[in-house]
Each structure stands twice: as C-alpha cells, then as structure tokens.
Amino acid sequence: MWIILVAVVVFILLISTKQVNQYERGIKFTFGKFSKIMKPGWNIVLPIFQSYRKVDIRTKAVDVPEQDAITKDNVSVRINAVIYYKVFDASKAVLEVENFYFAVGQLAQTTMRNAVGSVSLDELLSEREKISEEICKIIDKATDPWGIEVENVELKDISLPEEMKRVIARVAEAEREKEAVITKAKGEVEASENLAKAAKLMSTTPGAMHLRTLSTLSDISSDQSNTIIFALPVEVLRSFEGKTVSEENIAKIVKDVTNKKK
Question: What is the model's pTM?
Fold first, then answer.
C-alpha cells in the first residue's frame, strides 16, 4: 500500500515539474487566475488545478510585409521594414493582448503607412533614419501596456514607380551638369586671373615677350609641315633702330629662314 502511495506521489511530482529555460518566463495560472511569473529552472505546476504558459523574452526580428503608401506630396510608394522588439513583462504580454506577435506586426504596418503619409518624397528618401526613429517611438509607446519594448525599426526598402525613377534620374543628371558647369566656370576664372598676372609681369619685364616668342617658335617648329607667319616683337624691331642692314646680312637671314623651313 505504501509503495503504491509513494509511486503515485512520485508520478504527480514528475508530471508537475515544468522546466523554464533561461531565455523564457512562465506565466502560472491557479484555478484560471494569474498567480505568479515562473523564473528559469524547475517549477511545480499541479495538474488540474494549475496551468502555465511560456513566453520567450529574447529580442525578436519581425519582417513587416511590403506596404502601399502615399507620401504627403501624393507620390505612391511601396515600403517594407524590420522591427526589433522584446518582452519585458511576460504577464502583460499574455494577459493584456491575445497574440502579441500578430498585434505588433499589424501596429507596425499601420504606423508605417501613417508616417510615410506625413512626409514628402524627398524627406522620405533623405531622412530615412529620422523617420525610422519616429516610427519606433510611436510603436514603443503603443505596445508599452502589452509589456513589450520596441528596440529599433529599420526601413529596408522604398520602391518607387518607374516614371518617378526616371524623373529622379533626370533631376540627378541636371544637378551633375550644373556642378560641372560651375566647376568649369571656376577654372576659367582662375585661368584668366593667372593669365592676367602673367601678362602684367611680362609687360613690366624687359625682353620677357621676346623670350616667350622664341619659346613658342621652338615648340611649333618641331613639325616641319607647319608654315609659320608671325610678327616680330617690338623689342626686336627696336634693336634695328639707327642701324643699316647690309645686303649680305639680308641674304644671310633669308638663307637661315629657308634652311629652317626645310
């Protein structure tokens, strides 16, 4: 008799012992009423009189399905996101909402559409991080009574209509062309300033123009097919003032020029 009684007690203890893992919390009900939160380890849950439910308190990453939304400037877009949240009060997650997984997903979809509708397309594309933070704050505040903490929301992708993509591409191309024109204009201004400085320096330096002319002739005379017609600098002409050129000198100059052209 005693053996049977001991066996029954051992059997009841075995079926009453429930294990709660480190990343879980157990919600115990006694006669249908919430009685306590079960900590990690072995816990006694008496059959018939008591029941329990495990809740995973690890951070969860939920992929929010792609949503159709209209921006403040009436542009239709498709967006999707990922939301990171965890349960900080297991009793509220069970008692205050029927299915917190489904509830958080539905709330994220609605909040995303509302957030996109309050900004323009340019703000949506350029301030994605700021909009994600706003969505995170709204969802976190709404899920606080459920014992859920929203850690982060990330907008993964923003899909635009094809015609809007072409418009944005044309705008970007126009911006690049504008930058190129501005850069070219700045370069021309700097070049003209440097040329003005060089001209001023050469005009005040004796013989500078003559040296520049000789340097230019040296550069272009490398190609024998070129025919060169140039005016002598004033400095060269002045060097002949008051002097008489003999026929021998003229013949020598003509001969030198002819040989150089050959």
Answer: 0.62
